[in-house]
Amino acid sequence: MTNPHGQHLSRTAKGAINRFYAHADTRNLNAAQELVSDLALAADDKAREKLWKKAGDVLKRLGVPPQTADPILTQRNLTRLAELTASLASRK
Hints:
This protein has helices at 11-22, 24-41, 45-61, 66-75, 78-91.
């Protein structure tokens, strides 16, 4: 494998890169679970708004269909977000 600068990667580096991409779904699911906690503890509206935007991005990366994610995000329904995240976690 050659990187953009024309250098070859070691076998160890290739393995690390492959594992990084192989576990992307796990990282995204963990991010969704952390967002549920952060939203529950968010102190102000500005922080909450930023977290809801992140939640939308994470749900998209997890492959959640828009017809499922959009109502949760527009209503800012933390309970349904937590239920959806738990449902995704139980599928793993």
